[in-house]
Amino acid sequence: MRIAVVGAGVVGVATAYLLAREGHSVVLIDGACEPGRGASAGNAAQLSWAYADAMASPALLRHLPAIMAGRDPAFRVRWRLDPDFLLWGLRFLANAPGWRWRGNTDAILRLAGESREEMEKLLAEVDIDFDYRLAGKLHLYPDEASLAAAKPGVERKRRLGFEQSILSLSEAQAVEPALQNYQGEIAGAVYTPGDAMGDAAAFCRQLTRHMADHLGVVTCFNRQVVGFEQRHGKLTALRFADHEPLETDRAVVTAGPLIHGLMADLPEVADVQPVRGYSLTIARSPNAPLVSLTDVKRKLAFVAIGDRFRVAGLADIERPGAGFDAGRFDVLHAAARSVLPGCFDDAQELMRWSGERPMTPSSRPMIGPSRNLAGVYINAGHGMLGWTLALGSARRIAGFLN
After folding, report:
1. What's the pLDDT score for residue 68?
2. Do 360 and 382 meet the contact criterion of CB atoms below 8 Å apart?
3. Euclidean distance between CA atoms 84 and 192, whole angstroms
4. How far is CA 326 from the centre of its chain?
């Protein structure tokens, strides 16, 4: 069976790999010149198997007035008179009560666990270099109240099979000595030794090359899918902006922010909206942390990627295609410098990045067959967890197609 995978970010590349591994004939398609050019290019690089929490939560609901008033530098919402966006916002708020947040988070954590299992299989089967390592992760809490509030989540994640522990400041500094120079408030930390990291863009490039060389995957880059051809409500081919149609038996759409361009054929994708994030990658200095860090108060993620060091953060819910906002990047840069001045003062900047991470109101990705067009499957809406959930969602899509 010939299957076209639309989108060559981490979700699309992971999907193509698992389908090809199962013996399918796969064509991987992307409008960019190479894989991993979208959100995968500058994401936080953290494989947060134990931190796949839904965004809509009681804590965010309590903080919503401050966000709407523009008093939270990490979050920004730009409301617009768009029925799809307003409906998405209402559904997002409906997912914020505790019982729904817990259900959504547990479901996403189970998917993250499947991703971790598939990553272990991939690393045993494929020899690719994407700076992968078990870095461990420290979530830094600014005060005793926030640290105490994290304890029920730690207990729940332990029950789901994740190893976590609550550390004092001195214990956290013993795990990561660079915290002795951290300028932010730290009352304690949650430590997850099994969380990993890896360069998502390198993963996309390396795995795509492996698939082309060893699994017969055909790649079509610089080709933007604009729609589908169908007969009697069933997929027959993909339509491109400037190429002849491609006949295919099935298609899996993982197109990230470009998925809205396919809404005429796939109306259900209106249920994903972009959450824009920013990152800065610099040359890693000797005093940079090696353990992955997340500053809970400032919503900053720090990770050492080989000889590079990256900070990622911000969550801007706004119109699709809003683009890079220099002012928002300055907010990220200033926050990073304030807590790790020794790393970011006079550092060699290697990449400034901003990208959209389409997310569903529940934060659960949309995985399964299209309700509108037979033969088309959707694997999208992972939000900020695309790298963490990519292989698990690929496994589930492969289950529909096997």
Report:
1. 83
2. no
3. 38
4. 22
> What pLDDT, in 10s, does the model give residues 340-386?
998 998 889 999 999 999 999 999 999 999 999 999 999 999 999 99
> Which pLDDT score, from 0 to 100, does residue 135 have?
95
What is the gyration radius of the CA atoms in the chain, in angstroms? 21
Q: What percent of the chain has pLDDT over 70?
A: 100
CB atoms within 10 A of CB 373: 18
370 and 268 Cβ atoms separated by less than 8 Å: yes
Instruction: Report CA-CA distances (Å) from 226 to 30, 71, 181, 330, 379.
Output: 11, 39, 51, 35, 17
Give Cβ neighbours of residue 317 (< 8 Å, ≥ 6 apart): 75, 76, 77, 78, 273, 274, 275, 276
Q: How far is CA 154 from CA 100, 136, 139, 365, in A?
A: 18, 15, 11, 23
CB 35 within 8 A of CB 13: yes
The SS3 assignment for 248 reads coil
pLDDT per position as a tens digit, 281-291: 999 999 999 99
DSSP state of 181: G
> Which run of H or E residues covers position 139?
strand 137-141
Helix axes 98-125 and 144-159, enclosed angle (nearest 10): 60
What is the chain's percent helix, strand, coil content, to nearest 5?
40, 25, 35
H or E, element range at 355: strand 349-359
Length of the chain: 402
The set of residues, in sequence order, having a beta carbon less than 8 Å from that of 153 and lying 6+ positions away, is 53
